[in-house]
Amino acid sequence: MSITVRRVLRTVVASCLAAAMTAAALQGAAAAAPQDTTTPAQDPFYTPPAPLPAGQPGDVIRSRSAVFTVDPINHSPYEGVKSWQVLYRSETVQGQPTAVSGTVLVPTKAWTGQGKRPLVSYAVGTRGLGDACAPSYTLTQGMDYEEFFIADALSRGWAVAVTDMEGLGTPGQHTYEVGGSQGKAVLNMARAAQRLPEAGLGGAPVGLWGYSQGGTSTGWAAELAKTYAPELDLKGVYAGGVPADLLAVAKNLDGSAFVGLMFMAAVGYDAAYSELDLEKYLNDRGRELLQKAESLCLVSVDGISTLAGTFFKKISDYTTSNPLDTPEWQQRLNANKLGSTAPSVPVFQAHAVYDEMVAFGQADTLHKAWCAKGANLTWKTYTLAEHATGMLWSEPDAMAFLSDRFAGKPVTGNCAA
Fold it and tell me: Gene3D superfamilies this protein is in (predicted)?
């Protein structure tokens, strides 16, 4: 077995064990309450009315009570938390109205901190492209690998709103790693949580959280917030393991154990921009992979086996010509490259030095670009970490950063260091 494959397996095992142990530690005692296992594709809640009702981005189209659990066996409700699933208005990267699903979680215990209860709009990392990967579903099944981070935020008394993002849960293909779409979904999720009457979050101070794909999402939300959602009282942003420049990320992934992630991004861009026409570049092997990928969830038997089949493959193994070499694809990828605008609020950006999935260099370039534009940025690297452990190591620092922002403590960042 090669060193790289052993590292991949070790990373997966370590991450899963850490998630399981932390989730168990954070779970409170609760009576068993089996939860419905109907997936989003089978659940009419996720199908928006056609046409969408008139409204503004962030308006709630429909909502219902739900169960948040970290118990994958009995689905016991997590103690002391009220949960709702919502369908809300957002926008595509090209500004067209669309419906996105998500979850709103609020502690039942009264908030005793200063001001109103804070709200964290939480952007998850890579789940896959299939509707069954939607966090609003996996959080009801105790099967979400970030549930323990969410539970940590809830234990601090914060409300948490988790977007499924465009096309994950709802009809249509998930626009995976299309930053403009993901950033809007994160901001509109915060709006939807504040506009859900039962949640009682109107006017709440807002923080953003995201790692990996979620880092792209919160990075974009941070750049868009001042002009797209100026009414939000945004206090701070955590963006970790950020794929800021997908062309640079793709170059690093080609021929690696994680080339499947690059293929997922190609599917996401093809869904967002119909003129890209991914299929015309694919050979027979590529078309077969496309068919599998469109409904793939990473944390599943099919997902693991499909990705394992792509280990150490190259773009050329699946294509007749490389779409990334064309002006059309380069234009759309560059349009979703982070760094053109400085976030208007303090940002904590973190990255693992030995990140094998999301190249360190392009994240460092983002940090320098934001600093050059005058951002209030705290940049931290983790030397003894790769992608999954970078997520684990940065979690306490990110929680502390948002805690200080909600407490009104000043921060000057370390751009000048």
Answer: 1.10.260.130, alpha/beta hydrolase
pLDDT reported for residue 294: 83
Classify the phi-psi angles of 95: left when phi > 0, otherwise alpha if psi is within -120 to 50, otherwise beta: left
User: H helices within 100-233, ranges in order?
Assistant: 135-138, 147-155, 179-195, 213-228
| Stronger pLDDT, 295 or 13, i.e. the higher one | 295
Cα 292 to Cα 306: distance, rounded to the nearest angstrom: 8
Confidence of residue 38 (pLDDT cuts 50, 70, 90): confident
Q: Which of 286, 316, 334 is the last residue of a domain?
A: 334
- Using alpha carbons, select from 229, 215, 196, 251 the residue that is nearest to residue 64: 196
pTM above 0.85, yes or no: yes
Residue 31, both tokens: 């009576």
Beta bridge pairs of residue 51? none
pLDDT band of residue 103 (cuts 50, 70, 90) is very high
Residues 99 and 47 in one domain: yes
Looking only at the bridges linking them, the beta strands covering 97-107 and 81-91 are antiparallel
- Higher per-residue confidence, 20 vs 197: 197
The helix/strand count (H/E) of the chain reads as: 12, 9
| CATH number of the domain encompassing residue 30 | 3.40.50.1820
Q: What's the whole-number average pLDDT of the chain? A: 90
How many domains, in total, are found in the chain?
Answer: 2
Instruction: Report how far apart the first and last C-alpha atoms of the chain are (Å, whole number).
Output: 42
Residue 323 inside a domain? The answer is yes
Q: Is residue 413 part of a domain?
A: no
User: Cα–Cα distance between 405 and 1 in angstroms, integer?
Assistant: 46
pLDDT of residue 303: 62
- Answer yes or no: is pLDDT of 24 > 70: no
Question: At which residue do the structure tokens 């303090």 appear?
Answer: 346
pLDDT at site 5: 31
Residues 73 and 18 in one domain: yes
Inter-axis angle of helices 301-308 and 284-293, nearest 10: 160
**β-sheet bridge partners, residue 81:** 107
* Of the residues 318, 334, 350, the one at which a domain ends: 334
170 in the same domain as 294: no
Closest CA to 137 of 300, 266, 26: 300
Contact 80, 107 (CB under 8 A): yes
Report helix, strand or coil for 236: strand
Range of the structural domain that residue 305 is part of: 246-334
